[in-house]
Amino acid sequence: MRRIIVDSGSSIKPDEAKELGIDVIPIRILIGGTEYSDGVDIDSSKLYKLMEETKEFPKTSLPHLDVVEGLVDKYLSQGDEVLIISLSSGLSSTYSAIASMLLDKKGVTVFDSKNAAGGMRILVLEALKMADKPIEEVVARLGEVRSKIRLVSLTATLDYLLKGGRLKKSAWMVGTLLRILPVISLTPEGTVDSIAKVRGVHGGVKWLSEKPFEDGNIDLSMPIVASYTRSRVNLDKVMEGFAAKGVKPTDYDDLTATLAAHWGPDAFGVFYCVK
Fold first, then answer.
1. Which of 240, 266, 258, 177 is nearest to 11 (CA)?
2. How confident is the model at residue 178 (pLDDT cuts 50, 70, 90)?
3. 24 — phi, psi (to 5°)?
């Protein structure tokens, strides 16, 4: 049997993981002198409340590697094969740490998603569809799908990207003063990048509603994951644009605390695949 393990950068919640038959390893979050396990004893709402109370920006840390190794060893001892799909190596050192730790263990494959949240969810769903295929075929297919995943997203405030080191102060000043917001995406290397600029949230909603459909390149046979933090109001407006084209999202995803810390409250976006 093939066991699939992801980290909480996937934004897959414990109840969802149980339903899918996979394991989620929580990334650690440090704030106010306390350590929390992402998706276990902290969610985005609690995180934002703690940030307001402590006036701190949280620190994220690797999952407990001994927990990861213990889970892997348990499955290997049962004769199972293990596939680990990790948060992008361009966003976290989780991939490199786990891959190095498990390098000599036979029957274990560690795959760098070069994605987060909905992008990782798409890869997990694809891997589950190939449960009876050899791992070599699965990895090849995941690499193909990974290259076709796209993200378009918007942050309602640039403050969190600045605090998290994802945005230069000069860009933050210009954007804040002029209400020019960057459309955030992920590069092929799995790092955060701005691919466009829009004026205000209203302009962003319009842009996100239209961009995936340009050139008729969106692959409607693949999952579409609509992601948000705290409020779905603006995301729902984007989805109204999708609905007008006869398209509905596969999943709605209230991002876990690890991701919500950087995107900030009331952020919204869509993960999808191109043909």
1. 258
2. low
3. -120, 125
> Global pTM?
0.93
- Give the distance, in angstroms, between the CA of residue 157 and the centroid of all CA atoms in the same chain: 19
Is there a contact between 187 and 240 (Cβ–Cβ < 8 Å)?
no
Q: Which two tokens stand for residue 228?
A: 């948000």
- How much is the pLDDT for 164? 62
User: CA-CA distance, 147 to 144, in Å (whole number)?
Assistant: 5
Query: What is the CB neighbour count within 10 angstroms for residue 73?
Result: 14
For the CA atoms of the chain, what is the radius of gyration?
18
Residue 32 Rama label (left phi>0; alpha psi -120 to 50; beta): left
- Is the pLDDT at 256 greater than 70? The verdict is yes
Residue 147 to residues 66, 112, 115, 167, 274, Cα–Cα distance (Å): 31, 12, 10, 25, 9
pLDDT of residue 261: 86
Helix (H) / strand (E) element for 16: namely helix 14-20
Angle between helical axes of 94-101 and 65-77 (0-180°, round to 10): 50
Residue in this structure with the two tokens 């705290």, named with its chain if needed: 230
Residue holding tokens 């190794």?
69
Specify the 3-state DSSP secondary structure of 73.
Answer: helix
CA neighbours within 13 Å on the CB side: how many for 97?
A: 17
What is the spatial distance between Cα 146 and Cα 266, in angstroms, rounded to a whole number?
26
Displacement of CA 265 from its chain's centroid (Å): 15
Rounded-to-integer distance, Cα 246 and Cα 240, Å: 10
Which tokens belong to 26? Answer: 């929580």
Residue among 157, 139, 145 at smallest CA distance from 115: 145
What strand order describes the sheet that includes 81-86?
23-25, 2-7, 81-86, 108-112
